[in-house]
Structures are given as C-alpha cells and as structure tokens.
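Hello,

Our lab assistant flagged a job as stuck in the queue for most of the afternoon. It eventually completed. Since we weren't sure the result was trustworthy after the delay, we are filing this so someone can double-check. Below is the sequence as submitted and the structure that was eventually returned. Let us know if re-running is recommended.
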Amino acid sequence: MRLEKREIRDPEVLREILEECQVVRIGLLDEEGMMIVPMNFGYEYSAASQELKLYLHGAGEGRKARAFAKDRRVAVEMDCRHSLITGDYTCSYSYAYRSIMGNGEIFPLKTAEEKRFGLTKILEHAAPCAKLSFRPEMLEKTSVYCVKVHTFTGKERRPKHE
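-- returned structure --
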C-alpha cells in the first residue's frame, strides 16, 4: 500500500466495513475479457485468523456462472462512507471513503445444507429481520457461491473535519 497512513489493520474496523457495505464488486476474467459484477453478499470473518469468506448467490447459467466455473480466481472490492472533500483549489479536492480490496477463489456450494448456510449469511447481512425459510426446490435452482478471500487490505480516507 502506497500510503500506509490510510491502511486499516484493526480487525474490528475491518468488521465495521464489512457490516456497513451492502455490495461487493467481484472482478473476474472470461473469454470475452475482464468484468466486474456488483453483488449483495453475506460473510464470515475471523478477526483472530484474519480469515474472510464471502457468500454470493445468482443464476447457475450465463456469463458470470460460466466465468466462475472456468477460473476460480476473483478480485473483491467494497466501499462505504463516501463524501466529497473540498479545498481551496481543484487539486485539493478528494474523496473520503472506507474500503476493502482483495483476491481469492470462488467455489460453488453444492449441498442443500451448504446453500442454506450461504443464503442465511446473505440474508443476515442484507435483511437481518427477515424470516428465513428455504424451500427445497428453491435451493435446488439457486446457485450459491463462497469466496475464500486469500489476501485483503482495508483502506480509509477520512473527511477533513475528523
């Protein structure tokens, strides 16, 4: 990281970012080239081991699904706390944010139990008050994925008033 002063190392602040962000952007590569797909997610994060797993869902067919099947390597990015930093001249303008970026491997979850777990994590994050009930036919049709994030960094640019 070029500016070490912006790096976030505190596991609890990393957890805050995971909790606050509602969308993760998944970078992947296929025969058509690189692409970025924004997705809702759920997660498991261990501060002690710095282990991060993201859970995603989507259709089991189409470009994204084909890309996931062909090459498991993905990049991840999420960001929050956006605000403009103004200044006295144009080059002093900037942007405040918090973010997590990293890379890892994506795996399809196969069994109904694995899919239920992944979907539960997604709903716990996106809609914590939702009643969780998964019909077997829905679990069979839905593709659920786990991204095992191998490396990631947190970064923050604070607004001037902080």
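-- support follow-up --
The delay was a queue issue, not a problem with the job. The result is valid. The chain has one domain: 4-151. Strands lie at 7-8, 24-30, 33-39, 42-46, 51-58, 73-85, 94-109, 143-157.
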